[in-house]
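Below sits my pick:
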Amino acid sequence: MNKAIFILLALLLGLVTYLRNDIWRNEYTLWQDAVAKSPKRIVPHISLGNAFIRRNALDYAEREFRLALKINPRDVRAINGLAVIYLKQKNHDEAIRLFVILAADKPSEPSFHSNLGVAYMEKGFLEEAIREFNAAIEADPNFPDAYANIGLVYKKKGMLKQAKEEFEKALQISPEHVDARRKLYEIDKESVYLKK
């Protein structure tokens, strides 16, 4: 009798484990389960929204960030999520509007300045972009994306020597910075081609 109960209990626990593993299959299924179980908590919505961004499911991500903002209209993570979506959708004006709010509200957060700079750069406002990338560096001198982004602006302006210096600064801080390494390679390749 005891052996039969033990086997039944083991089978039941195995089934529960199998079902839980299905929920933990990936970040999307995990956070979708968390939202279903705690729809009034902000973190699951933000985390699910970020998972949707990584899958480029921007409409679903926007829905999650808006649900998070219904819970807390001033949550910077949700506002940032919406701004990132607008940036990816090339809605630069709306991205800039939100990143300006974030950068003013949290001036010591380098990513807000850097993202605002990217939005300005993509819109063609290069001097404003440089100003924001420098604000990111001022907030955190070890923030490699800001240097890499200044390098992109200089590259767009045809200032290859200055661009190269900025990409090298990014790589000094973060040797694995893929974008800085790729852009530095492009500049070196262009320089060799121009010397021929």
Notes: The radius of gyration is 23 Å. The chain is about 80% helix and 0% strand. The CA atoms of residues 32 and 48 lie 6 Å apart.
